[in-house]
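hiii so um. not sure if this is the right channel but i have a protein structure encoded as tokens and i wanna go backwards to a sequence. like what aa goes where. can anyone help
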């Protein structure tokens, strides 16, 4: 999807500028052309030589470089790419963009372009939270500038908070979404996936056999239709897909917190195999054997994340899809689950061990919605995901 597309990458002068080298490399692996522009400050953090070597392109640095103007004027440079990406976008660059300044090559290109602009901010948490920066961000958002991040985390300056440059796969995901004209463009979809691990003590946990394969395939299929996907995953075997926003969790309660924080979204697909129970009180040190005496384990029920979102009065997604992994009376159980939890659709599947579905590469599902049960033939989990993503796209784009 990114293959053959071209990006004008404006690298701002922040400590995260070195990460733009990894971004260039990954974008080129995807078959994209990346034409780099360095601000004066960026040259203090990365050298034009390394940027040029990785992009295999001339690096544009100066507005008044006559050779560049002879080869390609700045107006043309600002319009030749399919998308302009600013990464890292410093507070200074955001300020210039919001004010419409054009006093160097980067700001002039940003003012002259007729293409979409995606910015990935990176700065100290105080600078990000400053009223001036937040005002600029609001202005830029209302001007139609696209944002990815910033993320929260430890900063190079030793502080902690919002302001870290988004991870490379997240930036690539945002680029993909900006360049995709799929039916789910501009839609935000949450997908939960994988098992959860519920600690018994610091070394033992309760888990299940979910590999995360079906949830991962669904996230990829939704991404391919242009959705911005928030992927909340437990400790799964299948690695998360590229180009989606990944939030890793361990326990059901952490998953619920991540899901609640992701709201509002247009649709939510709950493919995770969430543990129904956790230890009421996980031991803080390893439980020891005591001459044959068995440990007393007492359980507490985990929150039902799907039911919580389906029944929420505030911010309920337009479409909520649950899964029902059953070993008996699949359709009957799944239909009553749909009513009990209050979701719109249930994807029901038979996970008796002899089906080989749990942990395998195929799935045989029945899509249950209000009053109908649509039996799909057994097919690969990728095909199930594609079919489901198409149904979701149809539902969300219905007039
Ligand atoms: O009740 P049961 O676990 O069979 O329901 C399965 C569906 O509910 C799945 O979509 C699963 O992701 C979701 N679920 C949840 N939170 C739980 C239990 C299940 O979101 N605590």
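sure thing!! here u go:
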């Amino acid at each position: 999807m990114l293959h053959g597309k071209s990006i004008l990458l404006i690298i701002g002068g922040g400590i995260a500028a070195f990460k733009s080298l990894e971004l260039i490399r990954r974008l080129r692996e995807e078959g994209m052309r990346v034409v780099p522009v360095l601000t004066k400050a960026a040259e203090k953090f990365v050298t034009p030589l390394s940027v040029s070597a990785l992009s295999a392109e001339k690096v544009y640095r100066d507005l008044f470089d006559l050779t560049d103007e002879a080869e390609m004027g700045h107006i043309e440079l600002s319009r030749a790419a399919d998308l302009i990406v600013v990464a890292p976008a410093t507070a200074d660059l955001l300020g210039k963009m919001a004010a419409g300044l054009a006093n160097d090559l980067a700001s002039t290109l940003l003012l002259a372009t007729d293409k979409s602009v995606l910015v990935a901010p990176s700065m100290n948490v105080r600078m990000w939270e400053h009223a001036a920066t937040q005002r600029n961000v609001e202005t830029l958002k209302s001007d139609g500038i696209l944002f990815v991040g910033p993320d929260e985390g430890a900063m190079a300056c030793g502080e902690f908070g919002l302001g870290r440059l988004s991870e490379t796969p997240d930036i690539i995901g945002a680029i993909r979404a900006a360049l995709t004209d799929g039916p789910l463009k501009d839609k935000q979809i949450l997908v939960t996936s994988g098992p959860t691990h519920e600690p018994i003590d610091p070394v033992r946990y309760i888990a299940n056999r979910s590999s995360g394969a079906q949830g991962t395939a669904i996230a990829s299929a939704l991404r391919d239709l242009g959705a911005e996907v928030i992927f909340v995953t437990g400790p799964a075997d299948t690695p998360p897909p590229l180009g989606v926003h990944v939030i890793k969790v361990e326990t059901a309660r952490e998953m619920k917190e991540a899901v609640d924080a992701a709201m509002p979204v247009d649709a939510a697909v709950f493919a995770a195999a969430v543990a129904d129970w956790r230890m009421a009180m996980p031991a803080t040190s390893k439980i020891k054997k005591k001459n044959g005496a068995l440990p007393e384990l007492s359980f507490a029920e985990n929150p039902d994340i799907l039911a919580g979102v389906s029944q929420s009065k505030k911010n309920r997604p337009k479409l909520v899809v649950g899964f029902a992994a059953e070993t008996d009376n699949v359709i009957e159980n799944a239909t009553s689950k749909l009513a009990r939890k209050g979701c719109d659709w249930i994807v029901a599947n038979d996970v008796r061990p002899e089906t080989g579905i749990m942990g395998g590469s195929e799935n045989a599902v029945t899509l249950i919605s209000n009053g109908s049960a649509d039996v799909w033939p057994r097919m690969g989990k990728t095909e199930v995901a594609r079919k489901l993503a198409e149904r979701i796209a149809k539902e969300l784009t219905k007039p």
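oh and The pocket of cytidine-5'-monophosphate is lined by residues 192, 252, 270, 272, 274, 276, 302-306, 322-324, 337 (CB under 6 Å).
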